[in-house]
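Exam revision sheet. Question 4 asks you to relate a sequence to its structure. Input first:
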Amino acid sequence: MNWQGVFPAVTTKFHQNGNLDMEMFFKNIDAQLEAGVNGIILGGTLGESSVLSQEEKIKLTTETVDYINGKVPVVLNIAEGATQDAIFWAEKAKEMGASGLMLLPPMRYSADHREVVTYFKAVANSTDLPIMIYNNPVDYKTLVTIQMFEELTACENIQAIKESTRDISNVTRMKNRFGDRYKILCGVDTLAMEELVMGADGWVAGLVCAFPKETVAVFNLVKEGKYEEALEIYRWFLPLLELDIHPKLVQYIKLAEQLTGIGTEWVRAPRLTLVGEERIKIENIIKRGLENRPVV
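Answer key, structure tokens:
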């Protein structure tokens, strides 16, 4: 598993009646692959995993694996409250042909240091799939500390970290402590260029769902040392990237997908599509971005 490059956390597409829209889903996947992304992540927050049935998660994963057919890795996110459920999905992911896992700490229960490490080790030891730990204390209230990562080095298949602490210096802190033992992927769109400059290996991206070419261009330009060219795109991109750090990021990004022609705005309850002044505000941000969209 090569945990480097741009990994879209893709949205799950629905029809207006709430059923899965696999045709539109694969239209978006085509746009991601054409732009040159390095992997696809299913079942994250943007994927609305918490409102998908077990059968829908299985359908989404198996059909995505079949459709992509080895072009890039397919990574399944695991966000569970029970260790046994996390292990179930790790085993199921392997069975369905996923290439790797993104793994959150235990959900709902605020686990302590020993419990978090034990949880991660239990899942890692149940599979040989490579794992990226998702470290997002802002949204999920559990900080995976450097001391925890020290203990997790015992699990060879824990290979990467989705860095969403909002602390840019954490990239340097982790590199100083662990060298290349863990690959670091930025998980916050509005900090992506900054963390890539500081040595992050990849970008788990959100607005890539609507703007794949621009996202890949920023990543590639930074890695080529072409900072001024990257910065020109990134400054244009920032008002759009800020849609990723709002509680309604799913609705905002899906509206952006609809306006760029590679998605629909339909979400599943309890989320509701945008209306009124909020909708006008977000539409205007997206439309301004489209009017000034750079050629990449």
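Marking note for examiners. The first helix runs from residue 22 to 35.
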